[in-house]
Structures
1.
Amino acid sequence: MIEGIRHIIFDLGGVILNIDYKLTEQAFVEAGIADFPALYSQLRQTDLFDKFETGGIGKAEFISELQKVGPAGITEAQVLAAWNAMLLDFPVRRLQILQQLRLYYDLFLLSNTNEIHEETFNDILMRERGIPNLGVFFDKVYLSHRVGMRKPNKEIFQRVLDDNGLKPEHTLFIDDSPQHIAAAKELGIQTIFLDKGMTIEETVFRAKA
């Protein structure tokens, strides 16, 4: 851990929740949207996904727009299944780490997400761990579609700092997207970039032997 840290901001997907973007790409390609990888990825996405992640459009419009670019007859259920395919599981050790850290630090969640995924990852958490939602692990949760902003825009980081009276030099941000890390650094926030293969339980908060 970095010395002087009092507050920790966590990303969700790829940090706390295991995800695999390729599963969603594959599912949409199999459903008939062959160019889906050009529309959406971890590093970039088209305006449709930006709007959905910032609450500019709702679930029904998002599904309808994807149906328009898909083959005739692609159903709402197919779109939902493909969109949710990337969401995997919550390793129990990561949840235990959050519980332990909360005894010593202020914890915040800052995630680019959407109403479909919010419903689904909370369902996964309830089904796997008997926990109704992620809010039990954090002092405050910031989801892009609820606050109308998304990473890597610096405004969403500033919102978290201002809302909670956090000083950036005492704040740590953990994320697996380099563009998000870069934006946080510009505000003076301390950062840890989880590169491919790194996890918070094995890399950042590894138990001492």
2.
Amino acid sequence: MSNNILNLQPTNVWKFFYEICQIPRPSKKEDKIMAYLMEKGKSFGLETLQDEAGNVLIRKPATKGKEHITPIVFQSHADMVCESNSAFDFENNAIEPWIDGEWVRAKGTTLGADDGIGMAIALALLEDKTIEHGAIECLFTVDEESGMTGAFGLKSGFMNGKMLLNLDSEDEGQFFIGCAGGKSTTITIENKRRSIPKELTNAFEIKVKGLKGGHSGDDINKGRGNAIKILNRVLYYALYHYNVALSTINGGKLHNAIAREASAIVLVEDKFKSLLQAYVKEFNQIVKNEYFTTDSGVEITISEVARPKDILDDYIASDLIDALYACPHGVIAMAQDIENFVETSTNLASIKMEGNQIKIITSQRSSVESKKEDVGNMVEAVFGMIDADIESSDGYPGWTPNPKSVVLDTLRQAYKNLYQKEPAVLAIHAGLECGLISEKYPDMDMISYGPTLRDVHSPDERLLIVTVQQVWDLTKEFLKILK
């Protein structure tokens, strides 16, 4: 079934996308995909370079008569978010794309079209000998999804281009000229254990599952549930009404994804056993009602499990549950000057028990630098009230729109030529590498665009087939009319 995508148009782009899907490329483990890109560049007979950070740059000279045109960079990132509905070895196994009506999806995993389709478009440009164009450079960066270390490590002078087209946006017909900055706040709490009192005879696992999750920037305003926050509501009530003891709690996976699943093992006395079970069943319906439109698949279950060997210290457990309840999550402020645009948000991304530590990862975004720091301080203040170590990253900068952008004017004209209508010109709440690149190349004129994707950073990720052809045609028209 996966080979069906090779029959899609444009075949040159889908050919490369299929090849990319066969190559494992988790963040920070991009050796295989970068080797593939190096091999492709050399097989095209083009100058192919790799910098100290691991980024790959492939240069294609201008075609005859186009040497005077300003050099252009097409930029995409090589890594992908690795989320699955069941156990999947992203470091060794291929992604299995398949056609579902007008969409391409993957079997049980993220598709990796973020940003595999951007890479595929860039490779098709490099291979194609029929397109007339000025000098082209295609930059493929590493580790965009988990730290932007490729963009951080990019050195000035590596690229010659003066215009950059970032192929990492998710709505055809929308051009992005600015993005939010971001940072992360990590909390570490001692995983102090104690023996289980003999009266706590019943052990249960409580699970939250079935949520959509999604991108913590693009999807944060869609009203979707956070599995950690929902689970913690159960634990908070159970702690103060049924005197449960907490043994383990884990949830979420990635700093830039909304938590889809979470689970905890708790212990309870006989007299509260049936009450706890009834409460979870009742609360399951409450949450279904709360998210009946935005996250109707949510499910909270409770099942008996073997009694664990120990539990979390009572004081640490109550502090942890209180702090998780108070920790902000979601949209904090909407932009004052752009309608329906999120200005500031924070994501309670994951909680994991690792040896003698409980680690909580959160991420903050804002198009206003001071607001980014403010929401980070909110998170720090919450966990500062309990015995926790808090570490805040420096983060990455936002990307300030350029109202005099030549690349915007040209791409907009190309779009009007093809479709006889204006594209939408926007800023995006998600982080893009453009902000970091602009620090190294302050004179670079930049824009971000791409085909339509939905539910990225989740196993429901899908790519709208027709928009791949539209973006390919738009890219060729842009190169044709650029002077």
3.
Amino acid sequence: MLQSAACGFGYLALTGLEAARAAPNVSAVHFPARAKRVIFLFMHGGVSQMDSFDYKPSLVKEHGKPLPFNLPGLIRPDRLGKVFAPKWNWRQYGECGQWVSELFPELAKQVDRICFIKSLHTEGEAHGQAVLNLHSGTAALVRPSVGSWVHYGLGSENENMPGFVSIDYPSMHGGVRLYGNAFLPAKHQATPIRLTGTPDRLPQIRYLEDARLSATRQREQLDIVQALNREHLKQAERDERIDGVIASYELAYRMQSVAPEVLDLSRETAATHELYGIGSEPTDGFGRQCLLARRLAEAGVRFVQVSTGYHWDHHGDIEKELPQSAAKTDRPIAALLEDLSSRGLLEDTLVLCAGEFGRTPVAQIDRGAPGRDHNPHGYTIWMAGGGVKPGYSHGATDEFGYLAVENKVHMHDLHATLLHLLGVDHERLTYRYAGRDFRLTDVYGTVVKDILA
């Protein structure tokens, strides 16, 4: 009746509902994976590419002169000044000869492990849009985060630990959407871990343990609660929110015997703490985050997000503030690569280091001492391990570092490539919602095969 009545629209709706009911978890790779897990280091605010890894001698030659072309797409072109040269010296490092600013002396030693993409571009002059594009592939609608897609597709390596963990993620520029599941089943949302601001700077998962009750008593208590949840689910017939509650309670119970040990950074040697810069400033905070990320990856967490905090947005006084940001992160990130490599983990762990956009090659002139404005049209990110070419640089911006002009890589291409390295075809990792098959890359994205090892 539904098929014949009203031109079959009722039948189409029923078909869509049945497809959504049967939507499977992929839980298997589409082809051999080069990486088993991801550590995503988010440089919140947007690192200046021409002050870090994208060497542009033209900025020095043309310093103080008008840029010889227009800057398309800027929200406030009126607040931009003349060509603004970097204030720091550059050198070539490693066998690959990668140029690195003197602000990153420790990462400079790691360039032969790193694959740079110097032609990334995205949409969004504002932080909110660009941050959401990086984390979920779009800013227009509420969509699952990258980590949620990965967990939905591949599950967890350790049933006693979450498959997706978010360390110190910001409440601004997206909040929970940066690690949320959106319309995917609730179990695919990240488990948040707070480290910054906790007592003694120790990692903390809220409500993980209850010292008042024995493990046996907790199990009895949980069995009662879960029985009520399953009865509720039975009455509802299908409700992913209840499924998510049941799964999260069971995972939390299992985590009590495993997670405290994983979170205990004191189990690491003094030499390891020193390697990450723990116990000294300004590296202590981010050093702890990076060390925790390594421990979580080692424990089988599939996707680990780490945020630096919102300190890369250098609209003004970049000469003072950029060195401070670099000093907080350079040593811990280099230590993470060294540590993963020494443990044999870098080969199958993909480390992605990216901000939401880059900066302009001209000075911003409305913030006192000059800085750089937002630039999503061409900037640098990098990856290491997990099947990418080490000591390699892909793509290029123009001679001033503003527009991606060679081997351009869109944000959708980056996401497609990340999934590919995990053995997942981005066009086949779909979830039916509201009558449509959604995917991380929407209807776009091409794998950047040139960076594959």
